[in-house]
Write a structure and sequence with these properties.
With about 575 residues, this protein is an alpha+beta fold. It is built from 15 helices and 16 strands.
Length: about 575
């Protein structure tokens, strides 16, 4: 036999494929599992970082806004606003007190290193200015502020009265960089309009210094309510036009890398913290894992093939020996072979089973030969003992004519009825006949039983002749009438009536045999429907009530069959339900 058609090759190939498939599936699962862990870990770290950054930014922004609000609401600042442009020593004292209050509040605010300037002014000019930075103040600062387009936006929208916004440039003449600014009205409790305005300006380092601490683990930046991005907070490789209008969960591509955006709203001024995670960098790590998994897969396949080569050689020899023995069995060699039982492994067990099968087959062949001989002898004996049915019919016919000659109508009727019954019984039980023919058979049976049980019962047929055209299984009604005689009327010892009637119900025909004998309880009903040993030695054909029910259900199906309604000491009704089928 060619190697590629042998069992060894098939076992080798199938096992190799199984090892490869199992290794591939398991390693792919490990790869997906590790990949999921790495990706989930990266996003978890990004989520934790965003939460931490957001908390720190909210704290810094809160400090900045608190400083602005506290100074705008301080009584010294309010006095300076009410005093107006200083023109006397008293007014100068008030202004100096306000400046000292602003300086002291800035010193303890925690954001003093980021304050560019704090300026109190009204429509007439600059009132007080304070700064903790190296940038000095100028008298023209308030005029630069009033001329700034951003200032006009502040007044028209009021956006800065409750928070910080990003100014395009600082109002300090030589500072062109962007800044964060807050504008607070200075009012008294009873006044409805602002007496002055407190302008507070912070460096954007307030935000970027927090972000710089997390840049190695991701790209983070802050956007304002109008979509502006704080300077220095975004990698130059990421285009601001692409990330400014993205939503949380969106992705964008830069230089072949895919970035994912996550957004966390901050508590102040409509600002948002945006993080960009480089998914392509995660994929590079995943590729390293995939290569490792692939090497492990190839190693497992090679090791599996090597082990399989050794194991298949051990299996081939006993398998070939067992194959040769089975081939001899196909050639009718049923001798016991001990060589196929060598060893204690599974193949040796198969060999023992094969030897047991050989002995069993040989024993069965011997029994089959003996049974065939016995069957031949039994068939011969049955042929020798058979009585020609025509001889029986001719004998009954002779009795019938002798009764006619001797003018004995009872014997004449019984002989004719018995002959009719025997002829129909000889033709089988399960084919369908017209209801008229079934009733004719039933009347022959009633004729015989009326002579046997004279003055014991009366049979009444109330079936409409119009229903005689429907078909019914032969000998369906006779066992029911027989049951009514033997188990209904005869045990009572009094005269009884057996009534036969039928009715149509939709597409079904219901035929009922009713007697006024001793009746039945529920246990007797169940025995009658389900017990196979009901008939007595007086039964004409051995067909019991349960046999009638089974035959009806087998022929017509589960919805049809026999039902019994009875009351002990009063009556028994046995109803046959069959479909309406006109006889051919």
């Amino acid at each position: 036999m060619p190697f590629f058609k042998s069992i060894r090759w098939r076992v080798f190939l199938c096992t190799a494929l199984c090892v490869a498939a199992v290794g591939l599936v398991s390693n792919l699962y490990i790869y997906q599992y590790l990949n999921g862990i790495i990706t989930e870990r990266a996003y978890s770290i990004d989520t934790l970082n965003r939460r931490s950054i957001a908390q720190q930014l909210n704290a810094e922004l809160e400090k900045a806004l608190t400083l602005s609000v506290q100074c705008a609401n301080h009584v010294s600042v309010l006095r300076a606003a009410e005093a107006g442009t200083p023109s006397s020593n008293a007014q100068m004292t008030v202004m100096l007190d306000a400046q000292q209050v602003m300086a002291d509040a800035t010193a303890v605010s925690g954001v003093d290193n980021y304050l560019n300037k704090m300026m109190l002014y009204n429509r007439e000019g600059l009132l007080v200015q304070s700064s903790r930075q190296r940038y000095p103040g100028f008298f023209s600062d308030w005029q630069n502020l009033l001329n700034s387009p951003a200032y006009q936006t502040m007044l028209s929208t009021g956006i800065l009265s409750n928070g910080l916004t990003l100014m395009p440039t600082s109002i300090t003449p030589y500072q062109e960089q962007q800044c964060l600014a807050a504008l607070q009205p200075v009012t008294s409790g009873a006044a409805s309009s602002a007496k002055a305005w407190l302008y507070t300006e912070f460096s954007t380092d307030l935000v970027t210094d927090v972000l710089d601490n997390y840049m190695p683990s991701g790209e983070y930046f802050v956007t304002t309510a109008n979509g502006a991005i704080l300077p220095g907070a975004l990698d130059e490789a990421l285009p601001t036009s692409d990330v400014r209008h993205l939503q949380s969960g969106d992705t964008f591509a830069v230089n072949g890398d895919t970035w994912r955006v996550e957004i966390t709203p901050l508590d102040y001024s409509g600002m948002q913290l945006v993080s960009c995670v480089n998914e392509s960098a995660l994929l590079l790590d995943n590729q390293k894992i995939f290569h490792t998994v692939l090497v492990a897969l190839l190693a497992s396949i090679v090791a599996g093939i090597a082990i399989l080569a050794l194991v298949s050689g051990m299996l081939t020899k006993p398998v070939l020996r067992l194959t040769a023995r089975i081939k001899r069995i196909s050639e009718n060699d049923f001798d016991y072979d001990p060589t196929i039982e060598k060893g204690s492994d599974e193949i040796a067990q198969i060999g023992r089973v094969v030897n047991e099968m050989i002995l069993s087959v040989r024993h069965l062949l011997q029994e089959t030969q003996q049974q065939a001989e016995q069957k031949r002898k039994i068939e011969l004996a049955m042929l020798q003992s058979q009585v020609n049915p025509h001889f029986l019919y001719n004998t009954l016919d002779s009795i019938h004519w002798m009764a006619v000659i001797q003018k004995n109508p009872g014997i004449q009727q019984m002989a004719r009825s018995l002959s009719n019954l025997l002829k129909h019984m000889a033709k089988g039980y399960n084919h369908k006949i017209p209801l008229a023919e079934e009733i004719s058979l039933l009347e022959d049976y009633i004729g015989i039983m009326s002579i046997r049980y004279m003055d014991t019962f009366e049979f009444v047929n109330d079936i409409n002749p119009a229903l005689y055209k429907y078909s019914i299984i032969k000998l369906t009604l006779q066992p029911l009438v027989e049951n009514a005689i033997f188990h209904g009327i005869e045990p009572t010892g009094r005269f009884g009536t057996i009534r036969l009637y039928a009715q149509e119900k939709g597409d079904d025909l219901l035929i009922t045999v009713e007697d006024d004998g001793q009746g039945m309880d529920q246990a007797a009903i169940q025995r009658a429907l389900h017990s196979r040993m009901q008939h007595s030695h007086s039964s004409m054909n051995g067909i019991g009530v349960s046999n009638v029910n089974e035959r009806l259900r087998l022929v017509y199906g589960a919805p049809y069959g026999l039902s019994i309604d009875a009351r002990p000491g009063q009556y028994t009704r046995m109803t046959v339900r069959i479909p309406k089928e006109e006889a051919n």
